[in-house]
C-alpha cells in the first residue's frame, strides 16, 4: 500500500509557520524546517541525493543568510520573506525530460496565480526566465537546479518578499524590489501564502506534464519584456534586440536587425525603461 502521509523534521521550533498546516500529503510528502540556514537550495540538493527522502520535499527556513540567484546574484532576504526549496521528481507530474527547461516558467506562472490572490488588483509581471514583478518591481526570484547525482530529480528554490518591508533595504534595492506588504498594506500570514503557493505549483506542474498548460498564452499576458529593448548575456555572448515575448518552447524571442531569434538561456536586462 502506498503511504500518502507527510513527515516533518523540524531542527528548531518555528516562530512564523504552522508546519502541520503545511503537511499536505497531496502536494508535499516531507518537510525539512530550519530556523536559519545558508541556502535552502543547498540543503535541498544534499537531501535530494538521499534516495530515502520522500518527494515532493519542502525545505523551509525562516532566515536564509546566503541565498543564491542566477549566476553571481544573491537574494536579499529579511525576516518576513518566504525562502524555500522544493525537490521534485518531474516524471511524477508526467513532465518529460525534453520539457524540463519549461519547469522554471511553469513555476513562475504558478507563483503569479498565488500572487493574484494576495495582491488582487495590483500589476503582476513575469520577467523571463525566473523573476516576478509586483507593480513593476521585483518581488520574487526562482532558481531551478538539476542534481548531478540524481538525474531524475530537480530542486526549485523560491524567494518571495511577503512581510519584509523594503523601507530599510539598501538604497540600490528600493527602486527595483518590493514586497507584498509594501504594495498592498496587508500583513499576510506566511503559512497561508506558502500553502497557496505549493498548491498552485502542483497544479501548474501537472498541467505542464499533461500538455494542458497554455504556457505561451499565459506568459504573454504578464510578460514585462515584450516590446522592450533588452540586452541578453548568454555565456560570453551579448546580444541586444526588441523582445517579442516567448515561443511555445519557452525561448525568449529577440528581434535584431529585422531577424527573430529564440534564446533558451541567459540573463536579461531591460534597456528601455519607458
Fraction of residues in β-strands? 25-35%
Describe the main β-sheet briefly.
8 strands, mixed
β-strand number: 13
What's the mean pLDDT score? 91
Number of helices: 7
Globular, elongated, flat, extended or rod-shaped: what is the shape?
A: globular
Gap between N and C termini, in Å?
Answer: 59 Å
State the gist of this model.
With about 270 residues, the protein is of the alpha+beta class.
Architecture overview:
The protein is α+β, with helices and mostly antiparallel strands. Helix content is 24%, strand content 32%. The strands form two sheets. Strands 1-2-3-4-8-7-6-5 form an eight-stranded mixed beta sheet, with helices on both faces. The protein is globular.
Helix-strand blueprint:
Layout: E1 7-10, H1 19-22, E2 30-37, H2 40-48, E3 57-64, E4 81-88, H3 103-118, E5 124-127, E6 131-134, E7 137-147, E8 150-161, H4 171-174, H5 180-184, H6 190-210, H7 215-222, E9 229-234, E10 237-246, E11 252-256, E12 259-263, E13 267-270
Parallel strand pairs: 1-2, 2-3
Antiparallel strand pairs: 3-4, 4-8, 5-6, 6-7, 7-8, 9-10, 9-13, 10-11, 11-12
Helix pairs in contact: 3-6
Keywords:
globular, alpha+beta, eight-stranded mixed sheet, five-stranded antiparallel sheet, 13 strands
Amino acid at each position: 500500500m502506498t503511504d500518502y502521509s507527510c513527515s516533518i523534521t523540524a531542527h528548531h521550533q518555528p516562530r512564523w509557520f504552522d508546519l502541520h498546516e503545511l503537511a499536505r500529503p497531496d502536494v508535499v510528502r516531507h518537510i525539512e524546517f530550519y530556523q536559519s540556514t545558508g541556502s535552502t537550495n543547498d540543503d535541498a540538493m544534499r537531501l535530494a541525493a538521499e534516495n530515502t527522502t520522500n518527494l515532493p520535499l519542502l525545505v523551509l527556513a525562516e532566515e536564509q543568510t546566503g541565498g543564491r540567484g542566477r549566476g553571481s546574484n544573491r537574494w536579499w532576504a529579511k525576516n518576513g520573506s518566504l525562502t524555500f526549496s522544493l525537490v521534485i521528481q518531474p516524471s511524477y507530474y508526467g513532465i518529460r525530460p525534453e520539457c524540463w527547461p519549461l519547469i522554471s516558467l511553469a513555476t513562475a506562472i504558478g507563483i503569479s496565480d498565488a500572487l493574484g490572490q494576495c495582491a488582487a488588483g495590483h500589476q503582476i509581471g513575469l520577467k523571463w526566465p525566473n523573476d516576478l514583478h509586483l507593480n513593476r518591481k521585483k518581488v520574487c526570484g526562482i532558481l531551478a537546479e538539476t542534481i548531478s547525482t540524481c538525474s531524475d530529480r530537480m530542486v526549485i528554490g523560491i524567494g518571495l518578499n511577503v512581510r519584509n518591508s523594503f523601507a530599510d533595504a539598501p538604497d540600490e534595492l528600493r527602486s527595483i524590489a518590493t514586497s507584498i506588504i509594501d504594495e498592498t498594506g496587508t500583513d499576510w500570514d506566511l503559512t497561508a501564502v506558502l500553502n497557496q503557493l505549493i498548491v498552485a505549483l502542483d497544479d501548474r506542474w501537472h498541467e505542464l506534464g499533461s500538455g494542458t498548460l497554455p504556457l505561451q498564452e499565459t506568459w504573454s499576458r504578464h510578460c514585462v519584456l515584450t516590446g522592450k529593448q533588452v540586452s541578453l548575456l548568454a555565456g560570453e555572448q551579448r546580444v541586444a534586440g526588441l523582445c517579442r515575448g516567448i515561443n511555445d518552447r519557452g525561448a525568449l524571442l529577440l528581434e535584431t536587425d529585422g531577424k527573430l531569434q529564440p534564446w533558451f538561456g541567459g540573463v536579461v536586462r531591460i534597456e528601455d525603461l519607458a
